[in-house]
Amino acid sequence: MKLEQRVSLKQLRALVAVADTGSFTLAARRLHITQPAVSMQLRELEAIVGEVLVDGRREIRLTLAGETLVRRAKEALSAIELAGIEILAGRGVAAGTIDIVAITTAEYFVPRLLAEFGRRYPDIRFRLSVVNRAEVYTMLDERRAAVAIMGKPPSNMAVRRIPFAPHLLSFVAAPDHPLAHKRNIPPASLTEERLLLRERGSGTRDHIERYLKRHGVNALRADELGSNETLKQAAMAGMGIAFLSHHTFSMEEAAGHLVRLDVQDTPVEREWNIVVRNDQPLSLAVTTLMNFLQSEGVDLIGASAGASADRG
Fold it and tell me: What DSSP assignment string belongs to 47-102?
């Protein structure tokens, strides 16, 4: 049975899409064709193979023959994609798919960066995951991400860190908070305040703990609320003082829903970094992304960080 002489790439893509999504409807959406077209491709493929490949109507299941063909189809499609990438690379054109992971705070600006990157380099695609810092470390360690966008890189892993933009963090509160319009607030004033914190292990939590320790502040009341959005909502509701990245609250500050407190030695300035493994060869696509972030990152995300850095 010489499948290679009769099977088409369209048929293989239809089979893989059905296997990945578990649905003919979702497979059709992924491939941007109609559901009947997906069904027709699979029927033709089954006729060529002489085996049922997909079993079940409501719950899609692959037969043994289907599993075998899906595995080999993915290898073939990947090889063809890689060949195209290598051909373009030979012409000096960056192409391919980059697996990117970013910490949760970066979700406020990474889409803007990738949107502009995509416009300039249409042959490069990306898969973006937004997770907490611990999961970023795990994805780098397991090689599930080629590039990480984060603050503090892992210390137990051989990585390369390339700073590309400043990262400012400040204390914020509701406009009617007693400290909202005071100037040059000493850190000791935070002792009696109710502080709103991210979960342990997050970069933002690490930054505020280091700030408080450096200034000898032992907060008497602190609540752990989790996400940046929850902290913002709690601060706006008058629940207490939150410590947040400027990227997360620039719109709320501009709208007058939050006020950045003039606490001494703030904003705390850190760096946004591109992080890659030392032992992982960099594709032309990854190198192109790194160069783009280094040259354009500050300008593209500076508006959101800088707007709240200047007091009116």
Answer: HHHTS--EE-SSS-EE-HHHHHHHHHHHHHHHHHHHHHHHHHHHTT---EEEEEEE
Determine the angle formed by the axes of helices 9-21 and 35-49, rounding to 10 degrees.
110
**How far is the CA of 73 from the CAs of 3, 66, 210, 293, in angstroms?**
11, 10, 51, 35
The pTM score is 0.65
Convert the pLDDT of each residue in 135-166 to its tens digit.
Answer: 899 999 888 899 999 988 888 888 999 999 99
Does residue 108 contact residue 272 with C-beta atoms inside 8 Å?
Answer: no
DSSP assignment of 226-278, as one string? ESHHHHHHHHHTTS-EEEEEHHHHHHHHHTTS-EE--BTT-SEEEEEEEEEET
Question: Using one digit for the tens of pLDDT, what is the confidence trace for 111-121?
Answer: 989 999 999 88
- Is the distance from CB of 194 to CB of 179 less than 8 angstroms? no
Residues 6+ apart with CB under 8 A from 123: 88, 93, 94, 95, 96
- DSSP tally for the chain: helices H, then strands E: 10, 11
